[in-house]
Amino acid sequence: MNKKEIAEIKKQFKPEQAVVSRICGCYIDAEKEQKLSFREAFLSMSEEEVFKYCDIFRRTLSGTLGKNLLNMEFPLEQEESGGTQEFLLRLRDSHLEQDELLSEFYDKVVESYYHPENYLILLIDAVYDIPGKASDKTEMFDASDSVYHFILCSICPVKLSKSGLCYNPESNAIEERVRDWVVEAPANGFLFPAMMDRDTDIHSTLYYSKKPEELQEDFISSVLGCDLPLSAAGQRETFNTLLADTLGERCDYEVVKNIHEELNEMLDEHNRMEEPEPLTLEKQDIRRLMADSGASEDSLEAFEETFDAVTGQQAPLLASNIASQKKFSIQTPDVVVTINPERADLVETRLIDGRQCLIITVDDHIEVNGVNVRTLPAPKKEESSS
Protein backbone atom coordinates (compact mmCIF):
# COMPACT_ATOMS: atom_id res chain seq x y z
CA MET A 1 0.00 0.00 0.00
CA ASN A 2 1.16 3.53 -0.62
CA LYS A 3 0.56 6.76 1.32
CA LYS A 4 -2.50 7.76 -0.67
CA GLU A 5 -4.21 4.41 -0.19
CA ILE A 6 -3.48 4.41 3.53
CA ALA A 7 -4.81 7.96 3.87
CA GLU A 8 -7.95 6.97 1.96
CA ILE A 9 -8.71 4.16 4.42
CA LYS A 10 -7.94 6.35 7.46
CA LYS A 11 -10.53 8.88 6.27
CA GLN A 12 -13.22 6.22 6.53
CA PHE A 13 -12.83 5.93 10.30
CA LYS A 14 -15.35 8.60 11.16
CA PRO A 15 -18.76 8.11 12.80
CA GLU A 16 -20.55 9.49 9.75
CA GLN A 17 -18.82 7.14 7.29
CA ALA A 18 -20.37 3.93 8.68
CA VAL A 19 -17.85 1.54 7.09
CA VAL A 20 -17.33 -0.46 10.31
CA SER A 21 -20.13 -2.97 10.87
CA ARG A 22 -18.88 -4.99 13.84
CA ILE A 23 -16.32 -4.65 16.62
CA CYS A 24 -14.90 -7.44 18.79
CA GLY A 25 -12.50 -7.27 21.68
CA CYS A 26 -10.62 -9.37 24.21
CA TYR A 27 -9.01 -8.01 27.39
CA ILE A 28 -5.79 -9.77 28.48
CA ASP A 29 -4.22 -9.34 31.92
CA ALA A 30 -0.54 -9.50 32.88
CA GLU A 31 -0.87 -13.25 33.51
CA LYS A 32 -2.01 -13.77 29.89
CA GLU A 33 -5.51 -14.65 31.00
CA GLN A 34 -8.46 -13.62 28.82
CA LYS A 35 -10.56 -11.68 31.33
CA LEU A 36 -13.22 -10.28 29.01
CA SER A 37 -14.42 -10.68 25.41
CA PHE A 38 -17.20 -8.86 23.57
CA ARG A 39 -18.80 -8.54 20.14
CA GLU A 40 -21.10 -5.68 19.18
CA ALA A 41 -22.66 -3.93 16.23
CA PHE A 42 -20.41 -0.90 15.91
CA LEU A 43 -23.08 1.70 15.21
CA SER A 44 -25.17 0.56 18.20
CA MET A 45 -22.56 2.16 20.46
CA SER A 46 -22.84 5.69 21.73
CA GLU A 47 -21.48 8.48 19.58
CA GLU A 48 -18.74 9.19 22.12
CA GLU A 49 -17.60 5.53 22.11
CA VAL A 50 -17.62 5.39 18.31
CA PHE A 51 -15.51 8.55 18.15
CA LYS A 52 -12.90 7.15 20.58
CA TYR A 53 -12.70 3.81 18.81
CA CYS A 54 -12.28 5.53 15.43
CA ASP A 55 -9.33 7.42 16.87
CA ILE A 56 -7.70 4.07 17.77
CA PHE A 57 -8.32 2.71 14.26
CA ARG A 58 -6.77 5.79 12.63
CA ARG A 59 -3.73 5.52 14.88
CA THR A 60 -3.27 1.90 13.76
CA LEU A 61 -2.64 3.28 10.27
CA SER A 62 -0.40 6.17 11.34
CA GLY A 63 3.31 6.83 11.16
CA THR A 64 5.90 6.59 8.40
CA LEU A 65 5.52 4.06 5.62
CA GLY A 66 8.51 1.74 5.71
CA LYS A 67 9.17 2.51 9.37
CA ASN A 68 5.94 2.26 11.41
CA LEU A 69 3.86 0.83 8.56
CA LEU A 70 5.24 -2.19 6.74
CA ASN A 71 3.85 -3.90 3.66
CA MET A 72 4.17 -7.67 4.00
CA GLU A 73 3.44 -10.41 1.50
CA PHE A 74 2.28 -13.88 2.50
CA PRO A 75 4.49 -16.82 1.48
CA LEU A 76 2.67 -19.19 -0.88
CA GLU A 77 2.48 -21.95 1.73
CA GLN A 78 0.52 -19.64 4.06
CA GLU A 79 -2.23 -19.33 1.44
CA GLU A 80 -2.89 -23.07 1.50
CA SER A 81 -5.34 -24.82 3.86
CA GLY A 82 -4.17 -24.34 7.46
CA GLY A 83 -1.95 -21.35 6.60
CA THR A 84 -2.10 -17.97 8.30
CA GLN A 85 -3.45 -16.13 5.26
CA GLU A 86 -6.14 -18.77 4.73
CA PHE A 87 -7.17 -18.44 8.40
CA LEU A 88 -7.33 -14.63 8.22
CA LEU A 89 -9.39 -14.90 5.04
CA ARG A 90 -11.88 -17.18 6.80
CA LEU A 91 -11.97 -14.77 9.74
CA ARG A 92 -12.72 -11.84 7.44
CA ASP A 93 -15.34 -13.75 5.43
CA SER A 94 -17.13 -14.69 8.67
CA HIS A 95 -17.80 -10.96 9.29
CA LEU A 96 -16.55 -11.72 12.85
CA GLU A 97 -19.74 -13.62 13.67
CA GLN A 98 -18.20 -17.01 14.52
CA ASP A 99 -17.14 -17.33 18.15
CA GLU A 100 -14.92 -20.33 17.41
CA LEU A 101 -12.83 -18.40 14.88
CA LEU A 102 -12.59 -15.37 17.16
CA SER A 103 -11.48 -17.53 20.07
CA GLU A 104 -8.81 -19.17 17.91
CA PHE A 105 -7.58 -15.75 16.81
CA TYR A 106 -7.35 -14.47 20.39
CA ASP A 107 -5.44 -17.60 21.41
CA LYS A 108 -2.93 -17.07 18.60
CA VAL A 109 -2.33 -13.47 19.70
CA VAL A 110 -1.98 -14.32 23.39
CA GLU A 111 0.49 -17.12 22.68
CA SER A 112 2.78 -15.01 20.47
CA TYR A 113 2.39 -11.36 21.52
CA TYR A 114 4.79 -10.09 24.17
CA HIS A 115 3.55 -7.47 26.57
CA PRO A 116 4.31 -7.77 30.31
CA GLU A 117 1.19 -5.86 31.37
CA ASN A 118 -2.51 -5.71 30.48
CA TYR A 119 -3.66 -5.10 26.92
CA LEU A 120 -6.77 -5.06 24.75
CA ILE A 121 -7.16 -6.81 21.39
CA LEU A 122 -9.61 -5.01 19.10
CA LEU A 123 -10.85 -6.43 15.82
CA ILE A 124 -13.27 -4.77 13.40
CA ASP A 125 -15.12 -5.85 10.27
CA ALA A 126 -15.49 -3.09 7.67
CA VAL A 127 -16.73 -2.67 4.11
CA TYR A 128 -15.71 0.29 1.96
CA ASP A 129 -17.30 1.02 -1.42
CA ILE A 130 -14.34 2.41 -3.33
CA PRO A 131 -15.56 5.41 -5.38
CA GLY A 132 -14.91 5.35 -9.10
CA LYS A 133 -12.84 8.06 -10.72
CA ALA A 134 -13.75 10.21 -13.68
CA SER A 135 -11.34 10.99 -16.51
CA ASP A 136 -10.21 14.12 -14.66
CA LYS A 137 -9.31 11.97 -11.57
CA THR A 138 -12.20 13.35 -9.47
CA GLU A 139 -14.03 10.79 -7.35
CA MET A 140 -17.54 9.72 -8.30
CA PHE A 141 -19.11 8.72 -4.99
CA ASP A 142 -22.26 7.42 -6.68
CA ALA A 143 -20.28 5.01 -8.87
CA SER A 144 -18.33 2.40 -6.94
CA ASP A 145 -15.62 0.54 -8.86
CA SER A 146 -15.22 -2.22 -6.27
CA VAL A 147 -15.93 -3.18 -2.67
CA TYR A 148 -13.05 -3.42 -0.20
CA HIS A 149 -13.92 -5.79 2.66
CA PHE A 150 -11.29 -5.83 5.39
CA ILE A 151 -10.53 -6.48 9.04
CA LEU A 152 -8.33 -4.28 11.20
CA CYS A 153 -6.65 -5.49 14.38
CA SER A 154 -5.43 -3.02 17.03
CA ILE A 155 -3.50 -4.11 20.13
CA CYS A 156 -3.66 -1.45 22.84
CA PRO A 157 -1.80 -1.39 26.18
CA VAL A 158 -4.10 -0.91 29.19
CA LYS A 159 -2.49 0.94 32.08
CA LEU A 160 -3.59 2.10 35.51
CA SER A 161 -3.97 5.87 35.62
CA LYS A 162 -1.65 7.82 37.90
CA SER A 163 -2.63 8.62 41.45
CA GLY A 164 -3.25 12.25 42.35
CA LEU A 165 -5.74 14.85 43.46
CA CYS A 166 -8.69 16.29 41.55
CA TYR A 167 -11.44 18.85 41.95
CA ASN A 168 -14.93 17.42 42.59
CA PRO A 169 -17.52 19.99 41.41
CA GLU A 170 -20.37 18.16 43.18
CA SER A 171 -18.77 18.48 46.62
CA ASN A 172 -16.79 21.60 45.69
CA ALA A 173 -13.69 20.02 47.19
CA ILE A 174 -10.23 18.78 46.31
CA GLU A 175 -10.26 15.00 46.63
CA GLU A 176 -8.16 11.95 45.84
CA ARG A 177 -8.61 10.98 42.21
CA VAL A 178 -10.02 7.55 41.52
CA ARG A 179 -7.51 5.42 39.63
CA ASP A 180 -8.84 3.39 36.72
CA TRP A 181 -7.59 1.25 33.85
CA VAL A 182 -7.08 3.31 30.70
CA VAL A 183 -6.93 1.94 27.14
CA GLU A 184 -3.99 3.65 25.44
CA ALA A 185 -3.10 4.22 21.79
CA PRO A 186 -2.33 1.02 19.85
CA ALA A 187 1.18 -0.38 20.05
CA ASN A 188 0.75 -2.84 17.17
CA GLY A 189 -1.82 -3.95 14.66
CA PHE A 190 -2.50 -4.96 11.08
CA LEU A 191 -4.86 -4.39 8.18
CA PHE A 192 -5.96 -7.42 6.16
CA PRO A 193 -6.18 -7.70 3.27
CA ALA A 194 -4.15 -4.80 1.93
CA MET A 195 -5.45 -2.45 -0.73
CA MET A 196 -3.37 -2.25 -3.89
CA ASP A 197 -4.18 0.08 -6.78
CA ARG A 198 -7.47 0.86 -4.98
CA ASP A 199 -8.51 -2.79 -5.03
CA THR A 200 -8.33 -5.76 -2.65
CA ASP A 201 -5.01 -7.60 -2.44
CA ILE A 202 -5.52 -10.81 -0.43
CA HIS A 203 -1.84 -11.74 -0.90
CA SER A 204 -0.51 -9.02 1.40
CA THR A 205 -1.15 -7.20 4.66
CA LEU A 206 -0.16 -3.87 6.20
CA TYR A 207 1.51 -4.16 9.62
CA TYR A 208 1.74 -1.37 12.21
CA SER A 209 4.26 -0.91 15.01
CA LYS A 210 4.30 2.22 17.15
CA LYS A 211 7.96 1.52 17.98
CA PRO A 212 9.76 0.57 14.75
CA GLU A 213 12.42 -1.36 16.66
CA GLU A 214 9.90 -3.55 18.51
CA LEU A 215 8.29 -5.42 15.64
CA GLN A 216 7.08 -8.42 17.68
CA GLU A 217 8.81 -11.17 15.67
CA ASP A 218 6.85 -14.06 17.22
CA PHE A 219 3.53 -12.31 16.60
CA ILE A 220 4.37 -11.62 12.95
CA SER A 221 5.49 -15.22 12.44
CA SER A 222 2.59 -16.94 14.23
CA VAL A 223 -0.39 -14.70 13.43
CA LEU A 224 0.60 -13.33 10.01
CA GLY A 225 3.07 -15.97 8.86
CA CYS A 226 5.13 -13.36 7.02
CA ASP A 227 8.91 -13.04 6.88
CA LEU A 228 10.22 -10.49 9.37
CA PRO A 229 11.30 -7.37 7.46
CA LEU A 230 14.46 -5.46 8.25
CA SER A 231 13.58 -2.70 10.73
CA ALA A 232 14.37 0.97 10.12
CA ALA A 233 17.35 0.78 12.49
CA GLY A 234 18.42 -2.48 10.86
CA GLN A 235 18.38 -0.84 7.42
CA ARG A 236 20.42 2.10 8.73
CA GLU A 237 22.95 -0.23 10.35
CA THR A 238 23.15 -2.32 7.17
CA PHE A 239 23.79 0.78 5.06
CA ASN A 240 26.48 2.07 7.45
CA THR A 241 28.22 -1.33 7.44
CA LEU A 242 28.05 -1.40 3.65
CA LEU A 243 29.71 2.02 3.47
CA ALA A 244 32.46 1.07 5.91
CA ASP A 245 33.19 -2.30 4.26
CA THR A 246 33.11 -0.92 0.72
CA LEU A 247 35.19 2.21 1.30
CA GLY A 248 37.58 0.69 3.82
CA GLU A 249 40.48 3.01 4.62
CA ARG A 250 39.08 5.53 2.13
CA CYS A 251 35.91 6.03 4.19
CA ASP A 252 36.69 9.67 4.97
CA TYR A 253 34.54 12.55 6.17
CA GLU A 254 34.07 14.20 2.77
CA VAL A 255 32.75 11.07 1.06
CA VAL A 256 30.31 10.26 3.87
CA LYS A 257 29.15 13.90 4.02
CA ASN A 258 28.60 13.92 0.26
CA ILE A 259 26.61 10.67 0.42
CA HIS A 260 24.23 12.02 3.06
CA GLU A 261 23.85 15.36 1.29
CA GLU A 262 22.99 13.52 -1.94
CA LEU A 263 20.51 11.30 -0.07
CA ASN A 264 18.76 14.33 1.41
CA GLU A 265 18.57 16.00 -2.00
CA MET A 266 17.00 12.83 -3.43
CA LEU A 267 14.45 12.78 -0.60
CA ASP A 268 13.63 16.48 -1.06
CA GLU A 269 13.04 15.95 -4.77
CA HIS A 270 10.92 12.86 -4.06
CA ASN A 271 8.80 14.81 -1.58
CA ARG A 272 8.37 17.73 -3.98
CA MET A 273 7.04 15.32 -6.58
CA GLU A 274 4.52 14.10 -3.96
CA GLU A 275 5.17 10.50 -4.90
CA PRO A 276 2.85 8.11 -2.99
CA GLU A 277 5.48 5.36 -2.83
CA PRO A 278 8.51 5.75 -0.53
CA LEU A 279 11.90 6.28 -2.17
CA THR A 280 13.77 2.96 -2.32
CA LEU A 281 17.38 2.23 -3.23
CA GLU A 282 18.36 -0.91 -5.11
CA LYS A 283 21.89 -2.29 -5.29
CA GLN A 284 22.86 -0.26 -8.36
CA ASP A 285 21.30 2.91 -6.92
CA ILE A 286 23.58 2.65 -3.88
CA ARG A 287 26.63 1.96 -6.04
CA ARG A 288 25.89 5.01 -8.18
CA LEU A 289 25.33 7.10 -5.02
CA MET A 290 28.78 6.15 -3.72
CA ALA A 291 30.44 6.82 -7.06
CA ASP A 292 28.78 10.24 -7.41
CA SER A 293 29.87 11.13 -3.86
CA GLY A 294 33.57 10.59 -4.46
CA ALA A 295 34.17 6.88 -3.82
CA SER A 296 37.07 5.63 -5.92
CA GLU A 297 36.73 2.91 -8.58
CA ASP A 298 39.15 0.77 -6.56
CA SER A 299 36.77 0.90 -3.58
CA LEU A 300 33.78 -0.02 -5.74
CA GLU A 301 35.37 -3.00 -7.48
CA ALA A 302 34.05 -5.50 -4.92
CA PHE A 303 30.83 -3.57 -4.22
CA GLU A 304 28.38 -6.19 -5.45
CA GLU A 305 30.03 -8.96 -3.48
CA THR A 306 30.12 -6.75 -0.37
CA PHE A 307 26.46 -5.74 -0.87
CA ASP A 308 25.26 -9.35 -1.02
CA ALA A 309 27.35 -10.31 2.01
CA VAL A 310 26.18 -7.38 4.15
CA THR A 311 22.51 -7.20 3.17
CA GLY A 312 21.89 -10.89 2.60
CA GLN A 313 20.11 -9.75 -0.59
CA GLN A 314 17.35 -8.16 1.46
CA ALA A 315 14.60 -6.04 -0.05
CA PRO A 316 15.57 -2.53 -1.26
CA LEU A 317 16.58 -0.04 1.43
CA LEU A 318 14.31 2.94 2.07
CA ALA A 319 16.08 6.29 1.71
CA SER A 320 14.11 7.72 4.65
CA ASN A 321 15.50 4.97 6.90
CA ILE A 322 19.17 5.43 6.04
CA ALA A 323 19.30 9.23 5.79
CA SER A 324 18.58 11.88 8.39
CA GLN A 325 17.02 15.14 7.30
CA LYS A 326 16.91 16.46 10.86
CA LYS A 327 20.53 16.28 11.96
CA PHE A 328 24.06 15.48 10.84
CA SER A 329 26.03 14.01 13.73
CA ILE A 330 29.78 13.61 14.24
CA GLN A 331 30.92 11.59 17.24
CA THR A 332 34.22 10.88 18.97
CA PRO A 333 34.62 9.02 22.29
CA ASP A 334 34.38 12.32 24.17
CA VAL A 335 32.70 14.80 21.81
CA VAL A 336 29.41 14.85 19.89
CA VAL A 337 28.84 17.56 17.27
CA THR A 338 25.33 17.92 15.80
CA ILE A 339 24.97 20.00 12.66
CA ASN A 340 22.10 21.21 10.53
CA PRO A 341 22.23 18.74 7.58
CA GLU A 342 22.06 21.66 5.17
CA ARG A 343 25.25 23.20 6.64
CA ALA A 344 27.53 20.18 6.86
CA ASP A 345 29.90 22.26 4.70
CA LEU A 346 30.82 24.27 7.84
CA VAL A 347 32.83 21.31 9.15
CA GLU A 348 36.02 19.91 7.69
CA THR A 349 38.77 17.58 8.86
CA ARG A 350 42.38 18.71 8.92
CA LEU A 351 45.70 17.37 10.15
CA ILE A 352 47.24 19.89 12.60
CA ASP A 353 50.58 19.20 14.31
CA GLY A 354 50.17 15.53 13.43
CA ARG A 355 46.71 15.24 15.00
CA GLN A 356 43.42 14.81 13.15
CA CYS A 357 41.13 17.74 13.99
CA LEU A 358 37.63 18.96 13.21
CA ILE A 359 37.50 22.54 11.97
CA ILE A 360 34.14 24.29 12.44
CA THR A 361 33.59 27.60 10.68
CA VAL A 362 31.90 30.21 12.92
CA ASP A 363 30.53 33.26 11.13
CA ASP A 364 28.34 34.94 13.78
CA HIS A 365 28.39 33.85 17.42
CA ILE A 366 29.04 30.91 19.73
CA GLU A 367 26.75 29.85 22.57
CA VAL A 368 28.10 27.81 25.50
CA ASN A 369 25.51 26.34 27.90
CA GLY A 370 23.08 29.06 26.89
CA VAL A 371 25.62 31.89 27.19
CA ASN A 372 26.73 33.87 24.15
CA VAL A 373 30.52 34.10 24.12
CA ARG A 374 32.66 36.31 21.96
CA THR A 375 34.79 34.89 19.19
CA LEU A 376 38.45 35.72 18.89
CA PRO A 377 39.17 38.49 16.38
CA ALA A 378 41.00 37.51 13.25
CA PRO A 379 44.75 38.12 13.54
CA LYS A 380 45.94 41.31 11.85
CA LYS A 381 48.19 40.94 8.90
CA GLU A 382 51.60 42.52 9.36
CA GLU A 383 52.22 45.45 7.05
CA SER A 384 55.16 44.84 4.81
CA SER A 385 57.91 47.45 5.12
CA SER A 386 58.62 49.43 1.99
Question: Can you describe this structure?
Answer:
The chain has 386 residues and is an alpha+beta fold. The protein is built from 11 helices and 20 strands. The strands form 7 sheets. Strands 1, 2, 3, 4, 5, 8, 9 and 12 form an 8-stranded antiparallel sheet that branches. The chain has a two-stranded antiparallel ribbon with strand order 6-7. The longest helix is centred in the last third of the chain and has 20 residues, at 253-272. The N and C termini lie far apart (77 Å). The model has no long low-confidence stretch (mean pLDDT 88).
List the defining traits of the structure above:
386 residues, alpha+beta, eight-stranded antiparallel β-sheet, 30% helix
Sheet/helix structural class: alpha+beta
Integer-rounded radius of gyration: 27 Å
Main sheet makeup: 8 strands, antiparallel
How many β-strand runs? 20
Helix segment tally: 11
What share of the residues lie within helices?
25-40%
Shape: globular
Strand residue percentage: 25-35%
Mean pLDDT: 88
Unreliable parts: none
| Termini separation | 77 Å
List the helices and strands and how they pair.
Blueprint: H1 3-10, E1 20-28, E2 34-41, H2 47-59, E3 69-73, H3 84-93, H4 99-112, E4 119-133, E5 139-160, E6 165-168, E7 173-176, E8 181-183, E9 188-192, E10 194-196, E11 199-201, E12 204-209, H5 217-224, H6 232-247, H7 253-272, E13 280-281, H8 283-292, H9 297-300, H10 303-311, E14 317-318, H11 319-322, E15 328-331, E16 336-339, E17 347-352, E18 355-360, E19 366-368, E20 371-373
Antiparallel strand pairs: 1-2, 1-4, 3-12, 4-5, 5-8, 5-9, 6-7, 9-12, 10-11, 13-14, 15-16, 17-18, 19-20
